[in-house]
Amino acid sequence: RLMASHGASVFAVEPNAEVLRNIRTEGHPITLVHGGAESVQLDPASLDIVTFFYSLHHIPLEVRKDALSNASQALKPTGMLYIVEPVAIGPAYRVLQPIDDEATVRLSALKTLDVWLKSSRFTQVSETILRYKQIYPDFEGYKASILRVDERRAAAFEEHGEKTRDLFEKYGDHTTRGYAFDAVLRAISIR
């Protein structure tokens, strides 16, 4: 929505039908498509920028390179691939850890990107570490947000819910907007 609010025409791909139904476009020029980044049909050399925001590590390893290749083929010659991936450190990560310890899969996504880059025509032009606050109204709001990403986490909440609630209380900075958690991201620009 942010890019669309600044005049961009946005083409968004989402593999989870439930998440797709809940995306709010708020009147912006956003085209929503159900599918995976590895298989969605994109016109060659048609996009200025392709972003993977918090998503590369969720793409199955066996099709991750295909997703990167598919996205890169859709870029105009001057286009940019912009990837933002969470780093497995900090309070936001610690709270999620009992439910879904993503350290290995996040590292795997970066390794796949590195291998793919070496075999592509693209070059990494920048890498930036970003820090921001994830804010949730309360533990139930946090849980709902985590389950929206992957409903298979429900069983882990059954097993580790109390521990996760304790970590939520321990690491959350209580603010007027809710509980805030420092999150660390790696932003990579590729041309």
From TrEMBL:
Gene3D superfamilies: Vaccinia Virus protein VP39 (3.40.50.150). Keywords: Transferase. Residues 2-83 form the Methyltransferase type domain. InterPro entries: Methyltransf_11, SAM-dependent_MTases_sf. One of its GO terms (molecular function) is S-adenosylmethionine-dependent methyltransferase activity. The keyword Acyltransferase does not apply. PANTHER family: PUTATIVE (AFU_ORTHOLOGUE AFUA_2G14390)-RELATED, TRANS-ACONITATE 2-METHYLTRANSFERASE-RELATED. This is Methyltransferase type 11 domain-containing protein. It comes from hydrothermal vent metagenome. The lineage of its organism: unclassified sequences, metagenomes, ecological metagenomes.
